[in-house]
Write a structure and sequence with these properties.
The model has no long low-confidence stretch (mean pLDDT 93). Strands 5, 6, 7, 8, 9, 10, 11 and 12 form an 8-stranded parallel β-sheet that branches. Strands 1-2-3-4 form a 4-stranded mixed β-sheet. It is of the alpha/beta class. 33% of the residues lie in helices and 24% in strands. It folds into 2 domains: 64 residues, Hypothetical PUA domain-like, domain 1 (Ribosomal Protein L25, Chain P, Beta Barrel), CATH 2.40.240; 164 residues, Alpha/beta knot.
Length: 239
């Protein structure tokens, strides 16, 4: 069944113009056809088309189902956007497909990108949510200074991953050792030039656990995806 996104579907009972056009003109669906609609709030609506208009496709709700995220904990990734925007777009798509609750673009001392427009990233997240058959849209923050994230209260495991040989390495744990499966978790990944020594020191002082993702030096977006994949794999293994 085809799935569409409409954040105010419960109030309007009408798809947005873009989804209306895709539904009626591209997919050639008509009155009486059944579709699925998600509002990004964890509810899946099974609906019937009542007016197949290409700009305002009207529907009636047949059934509502609560579909919370299947991983059962808060997964948060703070990551410095890459200089090449395509790479961070790829990362966002894959993280949403795997399952994530919040993505925080970080502004760090060594950041290659200090400006980030989030409109396109949000569209990518919506598409990935629909494609992976989820009903909850993750939160995407605006570009945030790392100092603000370090000071934010968080009731769960907080990790900072880095690989620069000039940064403290002797106390790093593997993510598998640092993370308690099923517990809320936040992982920070630095920019292409890694975190600065001052940022690592501040994170450790704020209670973040230094972690490693292995012996290979990974690209920023690869490290971000690997950390989320690790968390899901560890949770699944525990179950």
């Amino acid at each position: 069944m085809h799935r569409f996104y409409c954040p105010d579907i419960a109030d309007t009972l009408t798809l947005g113009e873009e989804d209306s056009k895709h539904c009626v003109k591209v997919l050639r669906m008509g009155e009486g056809d059944t579709i699925e609609v998600v509002a990004g709030n964890g509810i899946l609506y099974t609906c019937r088309i009542t007016m197949a208009h290409p700009k305002r496709c009207a529907i009636e709700v047949l059934e509502k189902q609560h579909q919370p995220p299947h991983w059962g904990c808060q997964i948060v990734l703070g990551i410095a956007p890459t200089k090449n925007l395509d790479r961070i777009e790829w990362l966002v798509e894959k993280c949403v497909e795997m399952g994530i609750d919040r993505i925080i673009p970080l502004r760090c001392h060594n950041s290659e990108r200090t400006v980030l427009k989030t409109e396109r990233l949000k569209k990518i997240m919506v598409s990935a949510m629909k494609q992976s058959l989820k009903a909850t849209l993750p939160r995407l923050d605006e570009l945030t200074p790392i100092e603000k994230v370090l000071a934010e209260p968080f009731d769960g495991t907080r990790c900072i991953a880095y690989c620069d040989e000039m940064l403290p390495r002797e106390e790093r744990q593997t993510l598998a050792d640092a993370y308690v499966p099923g517990k809320d978790v936040m992982v920070l990944i630095g920019p292409e030039g890694d975190f600065s020594p001052e940022e690592v020191q501040a994170a450790r002082g704020a209670g973040f656990v230094p972690v490693t993702l292995g012996e290979s030096r990974l690209r920023t977006e690869t490290a971000g995806m690997m950390s989320i994949a690790f968390i899901h794999a560890l949770k699944t293994k525990r179950e």
